[in-house]
Write a structure and sequence with these properties.
By secondary structure, this protein is mainly beta. It is built from two helices and 20 strands. It is globular, with a radius of gyration of 19 Å.
């Protein structure tokens, strides 16, 4: 506090936790990347992602509500090295008792993904929406009228345990009322159109 002529000034920082009734608004892709574990979020505008700017969302929000707005990944080519977890998707993980709902993911034009998994001993979980689901994915869609191609560079033993799917690569949770409309091809990974 600062004292001046007998007066004191205080600065108070407050934090209001989000709730399902009052979620944090999501306006941009940067907002998505900055989400925090255990919080509630609702998308409130359409979002576009340049493939060159793509980063996987690794936080674990309690609820992410796409709210019917589009998340559009613009056409292009992306070449990256997978990390030790060997996961790749818009959302890395939906945790137990967490929910991803009402998400509309649109792939605009041809998308070519080249993923280097050669340094890892485990297989890769590769999907467009969620790499690994342990919670709930509901009322979500992944739509593309063009080609989505994935090339996975890895050893033969790792290829046998690598999976690519439109919605979710590794599911041990619940998926309801979701759809995938994509032309998918995969080299170096087993292909599943909906869930691998």
């Amino acid at each position: 506090n600062n004292e001046n002529n007998g007066e004191a000034t205080f600065t108070v920082n407050t934090f209001i936790a989000s709730t399902e009734q009052v979620p944090n608004p999501i306006y941009t892709y940067e907002d998505m990347l900055n989400m925090k574990d255990g919080e509630y979020y609702r998308q409130v505008s359409d979002i576009e992602i340049k493939v060159s700017d793509f980063k996987m969302i690794t936080s674990l929000p309690k609820v992410f509500d796409g709210n019917g707005y589009n998340i559009t990944i613009l056409a292009g080519a992306l070449s990256i090295d997978l990390d030790e977890s060997s996961d790749f998707a818009l959302f890395k993980t939906v945790n137990v008792d967490c929910v991803i709902k009402n998400v509309s993911l649109v792939i605009s034009g041809n998308l070519n993904l080249s993923l280097n998994n050669s340094l890892n001993t485990n297989g890769a979980n590769i999907a467009l929406l969620v790499a690994e689901n342990q919670g709930i994915i509901t009322n979500c869609s992944v739509i593309s009228t063009s080609m989505v191609m994935v090339d996975v560079l890895s050893t033969i033993s790792v290829m046998e345990n690598s999976y690519f799917a439109g919605l979710c690569a590794n599911n041990s949770g619940y998926i309801t009322n979701c759809r995938v409309e994509c032309n998918l091809t995969a080299n170096g990974a087993s292909l599943g159109g909906f869930v691998a």
